[in-house]
Design goal:
The chain has 4 helices and 18 strands. The protein has about 375 residues and is mainly beta. The strands form 3 sheets. It has an 8-stranded antiparallel β-barrel with strand order 1-2-3-4-5-6-7-8. The protein has an 8-stranded antiparallel β-barrel with strand order 9-12-13-14-15-16-17-18. The protein is flat and about 70 Å long.
């Protein structure tokens, strides 16, 4: 049987990733119950990955792309106050450059959720003002060298930047950021995919597609009042949005365009409508702000890297219909699109404001019109 006729090629991989914890908070610098800085981490990653056969359409267009699912077991130098989180994630990697017949430079992104953190607690974990929830988003981006060791084995070595946070679903939300090394070994279960030349893929016509996205989120709201003290409003607040995003496809790998982003944020500008000055956060009560102070419409520039199944969309925008300090902002977005049909996709993203302030996660669905292959 001609192995190149396979539709999918399957592999498994094991990585170890020692890490350095960026000292972004006093808790990490040593203001904790142990009295020592939290600088080191380590993780073990087990991954399943697949790629498309060279005779398939996707295999011809994206010959070096692999994707799959992974699980990681993570340990920090202070497990008593941070915990031992386990992350479940999807990932994708591809080639940046071929350095020789056996060595290539690749990139890889990971996106998922991590479980098992020890969050801040006023009595039992009062120093940990970095992690506010047991579940946090997990994101990582890295580059690595891939050595072909033979018929089925590959050795990988590189580095990655990793971020954990809860997207303001709970406070505190300072986030944990790592610089990780990486050493891994992969095994091609169904054999190595042939590096054969299957000719040029079908012709691609440049075109404009139109994405409609509906998303929602829950978030916490914190702010400073005139006394200079931080407060966290009790309860969670709803966020809902709709985006209309025309995108011009320059080629199979890159789209760019302008998006109209409408959003309602139930937490926007509530500090301007306090019902009396609070004694503490739990005593806070608010009058409901007018709709026009919680609704905004912005314009954002978007760029999108297109790969099989997954696409990465990046946006920078400015609200042009807005009222109040919380909506009169520049905003930024990082979005993962996971297609489950040619046109329909799952939309998972993270939104910032003013390039530094976390706003909220975005979970939704989308549909692409005129999405030519």
């Amino acid at each position: 049987m001609d192995t190149s006729a396979r539709k999918l090629y399957h592999s498994v991989e094991l990585d170890v990733r020692p890490g350095y914890v960026f000292q972004t908070h006093e808790f990490l610098k040593g203001e904790n119950s142990a009295g020592r800085p939290i600088r080191s981490s380590s993780s073990l990653h087990m991954k399943y990955l697949f790629s498309f056969g060279p005779d398939s359409y996707l295999g011809r267009v994206y010959p070096h792309v692999c994707q799959g699912v992974g699980v990681s077991f993570n340990k920090f130098s202070n497990t008593g106050e941070i915990g031992r989180p386990v992350a479940l994630y999807v990932f994708q990697d591809s080639r940046l450059a071929s350095l020789s017949d056996r060595v290539a430079l690749n990139y890889e992104w990971n996106f998922g959720a991590s479980f098992g953190w020890k969050p801040y607690d006023e009595t039992s974990n009062r120093y940990n003002r970095v992690v506010g929830s047991r579940v946090n988003a997990y994101m990582s981006l890295g580059i690595f060298l891939d050595w072909n060791l033979g018929k089925r084995w590959d050795l990988t070595a590189g580095a990655s930047l990793t971020h954990y946070s809860n997207g303001n679903t709970s406070y505190p939300n300072a986030g944990v950021n790592l610089l990780e090394g990486r050493l891994g070994l992969s095994y091609a279960v169904t054999g190595r995919k042939p590096e054969t030349d299957r000719g040029e893929p079908p012709a691609f016509r440049r075109h404009i597609s139109y994405d409609i996205v509906l998303y929602g989120a829950l978030r916490k709201k914190g702010f400073y009042l005139s006394d200079g003290n931080p407060y966290v409003a009790p309860g969670s607040f709803a966020v809902a949005g709709i985006d209309f995003n025309p995108m011009y496809s320059f080629n199979r790998f890159l789209k760019a365009g302008l998006s109209v982003d409408a959003q309602y944020d139930e937490s926007a500008n509530i500090k301007d409508h306090l019902a009396g000055y609070p004694v503490d956060s739990q005593d806070m009560k608010f009058y409901r702000p007018p709709f026009r102070e919680q609704f905004s419409v912005g314009l954002s520039l978007r760029a999108e890297i297109v790969m099989p199944i997954f696409s990465i969309n990046i946006g920078i925008g400015r609200n042009v219909v807005c009222r109040g300090e919380d909506t009169d902002v520049f905003y930024q977005m990082l979005i993962l699109k996971a297609r489950f049909t040619r046109n329909a996709f799952l939309h998972v993203g993270y939104r910032l404001s003013r390039f530094r302030d976390p706003s909220h996660l975005m979970l939704g669905i989308g549909y692409s019109f005129n999405n030519r292959r």
